[in-house]
Amino acid sequence: MSDHLGAAPSGRRLTPYELIVQPLEQSAFAAIRAEAAQRGSDPANRDQFALLGLVGATLQEMAADDAPAQAIESYTELLYQGYQLWSFGRRVYVLSERAIAQFTHPVSDLHDWVLAAPAACYLQFPAQRIWARVGPDMPYEPADGCFVAVRDGASDDAGAHLRVLLVLGLREDRPGISLVSHVATFDPRAAADRGRAPWREGTAAFSNAIPGGERMGYRTIATMSELEALVLRALRHVDRHPDALHDDHTHAGVRRIIVDGVEDSGRDMASHA
């Protein structure tokens, strides 16, 4: 998918929310919220969100007239994730090098953690450290990070709903990004087990798959199991290690929170940062 990207202030990387979605805060998001309230719809519910009239109108503005169905689905998910981020505090967790190294071990013990997470956030990876691709025959691209939306399922007793939208190939000097979507529903008590040892055929999870990438310290995501495990490990870290979170007060527009790695002894502290 393509869009026009703005310029980043010096000293940090803008997220895809800031580059692509943030202009919709004034032109669409407030009106979408008002329509949802008028119709009695829950905009945090993906299906109900997609049926809103103003969502359809916004998608028509975002997508080309001849865009294929798969592209429309990608735009819909990006719009949904962006709206959730706007609605729930615009949290951007900036993962440090030490944190991403910790989250990409082949095996990681999450102890007895039960899924607890912000309703929406964006996880930003260190630049060109994590690589992924949209399909097995496509080239690997650097992953900027991923949008994450969580519904706890308490209202319908159907389990937790986790939606992840991985953003690849984001560059401020050219239009276009690639998107990889993952959706899972599970018992929140199963989160620790799901994040412990992700599956990859024939080699260790998160191992490099790009020629010469070992020298550059690359890690790759080749399966949805790896993507989900990385997200769960990061969410658990945010929930249990408030001492590793540091607000970056130098930038406006989104709430940037620096996430550092820590040695995990299993004696955790709960956090709702």
Write up what this structure looks like.
There is one protein chain. This protein has 273 residues and is an alpha/beta fold. The protein has two domains: 72 residues, no CATH class; 169 residues, no CATH class. Helix content is 33%, strand content 20%. Strands 1, 2, 3, 4, 5, 6, 7, 8 and 9 form a nine-stranded mixed beta sheet that branches.
Describe the secondary structure blueprint for this structure:
Blueprint: H1 16-21, H2 24-39, H3 46-50, H4 53-62, H5 69-87, E1 91-95, H6 97-103, E2 120-124, E3 130-132, E4 141-151, E5 160-168, E6 178-186, H7 191-196, H8 213-216, E7 219-221, H9 224-240, E8 245-248, E9 255-259
Total number of distinct structural domains: 2
Task: Note the run of SSEs as H and E.
Answer: HHHHHEHEEEEEHHEHEE
Quaternary structure classification: single chain
What is the beta-strand fraction? Answer: 15-25%
- Percentage of residues in helical conformation: 25-40%
Please state the overall shape, judged from the principal axes of the Cα atoms: globular
Structural class: alpha/beta
Major β-sheet profile: 9 strands, mixed
Total number of beta strands: 9
Query: Rg from C-alpha positions?
Result: 18 Å
Low-confidence stretches: 2-10
Mean pLDDT: 90
List the keywords:
273 residues, alpha/beta, 2 domains, nine-stranded mixed sheet, 9 helices, 9 strands, 33% helix, globular
